[in-house]
Amino acid sequence: MKKYLAGTLIILSVLGFSLRESTAQSNKKPNIIIILVDDLGWGDVGYHGGNIPTPNIDRLAKQGVELNRFYTAAVCSPTRAGLLTGRYPDRFGLRKTVIPPWSDFGVSTDEVFLPEMLKAAGYKNRAILGKWHLGHVSLKYHPLNRGFTHFYGHLNGAIDYFTHKREGELDWHNDFNSSYDVGYSTDLIADEAIKNIRSYHKESPFFLYIAFNAPHGPLQAKEDDLKRFGYDATKPSFPNGGKEGDEGRGNTKQQTYAAMVSNLDANIGRILKTLNDLKIDQNTIVLFQSDNGYAPNEAGSSGILRGSKFTQWEGGVRAPAIIRWPQVFKGGWKSEQVTGFVDVFPTILAAADVMEKPKNPLDGINVLPVLKQKQSFINRNLFLGDGVLVNRNWKILEKLDQNSGMKLKSDVLFQIDRDVSEKNDVKDQYTSTYQLLKKDLAPFNAIKATAEVANFDVGKKGFVAPKEWKVEK
């Protein structure tokens, strides 16, 4: 009898430990991985009917929630800033263009970045891997002074994929130091992500912001990837007009772009496999998104959407996006919730159970209730900049002087839930809705910043890049 009782106690003890361990796992804060890709168009992914095979991204879409109405800014620096602050980039002067190499602009240090908030919530390791593009002339703008504990990648955009140079100088860094790592930048970023995941998961929950520069120009691919799309080394490469990025050009832009996207997809697959191998995928949030639509004249596709990068047509601001968190919400469905880049900040904070309130009012909203299917949708207007507002049913585009990329003759209104390709202006049919949206737009158009990034070419003439893009002041 005593042996029986002793055995029973051992079994109960083991079961109790297992239950406590299971409970601890379910109560543990999630790991957070944001995979931001650069200039990937709506029609460049397989799950949107694209011609380039993207099996790993497609698999993620099947496993997670497809965010069918996810919006960004029309160019990349504003999207990155809004994602990391939860605020419209208009509030700190970064809506109309990116931060070019010759600019001294940086996102105001009055803005609180996402990793700063996650630090207080127990996220010891908070890394940015890849493209920064939010200020590079002063240490106060450096990622390691904006809440990140590790930086591996480049400060500027449009670097050479092989030499890692911009304006003739090496722009590849490991924390504050220059990195002389050799390799294709997409591969190196994924390598570092995998290395960090394997190291970080042993401690507290981690935050990785993986900002691939692919498939942004210059169009460059590895020869092995090019060969899978018919590359013939005996034929000439497409001309690039003497721009940076001479190595890795295929026979055509289309071939090179396809090889770049395919390589990007494979590297995303490597990262996801690492999560699965380490058995941490169930409680890891993975958000995948592009920063804007495809760049014109660089072989991408907006699919069924109108327009491209630099415009507020859907093809410029409606990005492929997926979120997966198996432990908390089921996947395999498509959300029509209007959401976007400024919602990442509050949604991630809610998922990480961060109780502290950011000091600046947020423009983004927490969309977790919709993702958990506890709420069917959240009514909201989302400001897309330059006199453009979108909600569940409607999208208004005002004719503004600064809206030259849109080439509008007058205001237009689309019933966007039924007219995704923006073919039919219904302003005259729905005059009351049009007037109401005009009124809703007014306070957004009135947003003024104390400082604004200058036009892209200001300061370019005569500019000489600093040695290895060292940030010292």
Automatic annotation (TrEMBL):
Sulfatase N-terminal domain location is 30-354
InterPro entries attached here?
Alkaline_phosphatase_core_sf, Sulfatase, Sulfatase_CS, Sulfatase_N
The keyword Calcium belongs to this UniProt entry's keyword annotation? yes
Which GO molecular-function terms appear in the entry? arylsulfatase activity; metal ion binding
Keyword set, alphabetical order? Calcium, Hydrolase, Metal-binding
Q: Which family does it belong to?
A: Belongs to the sulfatase family.
PANTHER family found in the cross-reference section = ARYLSULFATASE B [PRECURSOR], ARYLSULFATASE FAMILY MEMBER
Protein name per its UniProtKB record? Arylsulfatase
Give the organism the record lists. Answer: Pedobacter kyonggii
